[in-house]
From TrEMBL:
Protein name: TRAP transporter large permease protein
Lineage summary: Bacteria, Pseudomonadati, Pseudomonadota, Gammaproteobacteria, Pseudomonadales
UniProt source species: Marinobacter salarius
The keyword Membrane is assigned to this record: yes
Record's keyword terms, sorted: Cell inner membrane, Cell membrane, Membrane, Transmembrane, Transmembrane helix, Transport
Oligomeric and partner information: The complex comprises the extracytoplasmic solute receptor protein and the two transmembrane proteins.
Length: 434
């Protein structure tokens, strides 16, 4: 059996046996080295592991994870919900608009779908249940809406993509994710509003509209967070990594001084949680470095890309095939693992067909976002169903409705690259041709 098959086969077997993704990646890389390279190459294990994580931009990942935890516990979601309710007002489906809007704003603070889902679900689910929405519908909508956090900057997944794909400007990626993220949210609203009106959920006369100005005043600290992060990046005041530091500092100010829902003792616990989560992420990245080095040295990734190219010379056919593969992977794996596993394989395809790397990165992110609320794994859906105290299988029907809706927005961005590339181009970032 060839080293290529042994490496890929051992990785897939390890996953099927229930091993953590990081261990499976490291094991697959080691098998590839032993099978196809001189034994002395095993000495590169430590070097490649270290080189995988010794990258300055990666510092932003634990910091944005900490930012998301701080804003989640600071009570930001509750303030945003009241503000959104004051704007939308009482109407059939009004709470669905509030849920999607708050998820989009929270995505601009956390960069993490599961953290976004937890924060919004804790606040929105009781209100939606009281208004007559079925729990499976509410849990599915919030899970789907919170998946847009992978598109709305600061996105942890886009940070990783900018590191894995050479020559990609993270600021351009952040800007490119804004309109597709909003489009994804709007696409979810269409079926949500339809079913809310069809089944007469949320009686407008039974819903109290919060006063606008007090709600705005309470929500202003939260609303300023995305403005500070994106404004600082656009003005050149700080780099993306420095933006993560600013976000943490601002989150501490909001949670401890303005909202006063956090104390120094709480911060210690949040930093511990962020360190544990970041450790898992960095462990995956470190061992994925072994897998990537072995696959590149053996030529495994190029061989896989050539096999895909042999299926068709039509770029649109192969792009559709890649999107299907990413969707399937998104149903089973987390975003970080998908980027680390699939990017080395699809990078030759991207270069062969001249796909714009910024546009392609957004397509991958949108696809992975869909996977975050698509069973069987559906990490966002797991979070919201746990909070709603229902079984995940009860949400499958509603989840598929929202999967179809967001898939339409993905197809639209595929056909009209300008949806993603217009804003970064107008802001003066290098985006290439489209």
């Amino acid at each position: 059996m060839s080293p290529d098959l042994l490496m890929i086969g051992s990785f897939l077997l390890a996953l099927l046996l229930g091993m953590p993704v990081a261990i499976a990646l490291g094991l697959g890389g080691l098998v590839g080295i032993v099978a196809g390279l001189p034994p002395a190459m095993l000495g590169t294990f430590g070097t490649n592991t270290y080189n995988s994580v010794a990258k300055y931009p990666l510092i932003a990942i634990p910091l944005f994870i900490l930012t998301g935890l701080i804003f989640e516990r600071a009570g930001v979601a509750a303030a945003l919900v009241r503000f959104a309710q004051s704007i939308i007002g009482p109407r059939h489906g009004g709470l669905t608009v509030v849920a999607v809007l708050v998820c989009l704003i929270m995505g601009g603070m956390s960069g993490s779908g599961p953290a976004d889902a937890a924060a919004v679900a804790m606040v929105m689910l009781p209100s939606m249940q009281k208004a007559g929405y079925p729990k499976p519908f509410s849990a599915s909508l919030i899970a789907a809406s919170s998946s847009t956090a992978i598109l709305i900057p600061p996105s942890i997944a886009l940070i990783l993509y900018s590191i894995v794909v050479p020559g990609v400007d993270l600021r351009a990626l952040f800007a490119a994710g804004i309109f597709p993220g909003i489009l994804a949210g709007v696409s979810l609203l269409a079926p949500a509003l339809y079913f809310a009106k069809k089944y007469r959920w949320e009686d407008p006369e039974a819903v109290e509209r919060p006063p606008f100005w007090p709600s705005l005043k309470a929500a202003l600290p939260a609303l300023f967070a995305p403005v500070i992060i994106l404004g600082g990046l656009r003005s050149g005041l700080f780099t993306p990594t420095e933006a993560a530091v600013v976000a943490v500092a601002y989150g501490v100010l909001v949670g401890c001084v303005l909202y006063r829902n956090l104390s120094l003792r709480n911060l210690w616990g949040l930093m511990t949680d962020a360190a544990v989560t970041s450790g898992v992420v960095m462990f995956i990245i470190a061992l994925a470095g072994i897998f990537a080095w072995a696959g590149t040295t053996l030529g495994t990734f190029q061989h896989l890309a050539d096999a895909l190219l042999s299926l068709s010379e039509n770029g649109w056919v192969l792009l559709g095939l890649v999107m299907v593969l990413v969707l399937i992977a998104g149903m089973l794996l987390d975003a970080i693992s998908i980027y680390l596993i699939l990017i080395p394989i699809v990078l030759p395809l991207m270069n062969h067909f001249g796909w714009n790397p910024i546009w392609f990165g957004i397509l991958l992110a949108m696809n992975i976002a869909i996977g975050q609320f698509t069973p069987p794994v559906a990490v966002n859906l797991m979070v919201t169903t746990r909070i709603a105290n229902i079984r995940l299988e009860h949400t499958i029907g509603w989840a598929m409705v929202f999967v179809a809706a967001m898939a339409l927005s993905l197809v639209l961005v595929m056909l009209v690259p300008g949806i993603a590339l217009w804003l970064p181009e107008k802001l003066g970032y290098v985006v290439g041709s489209w």
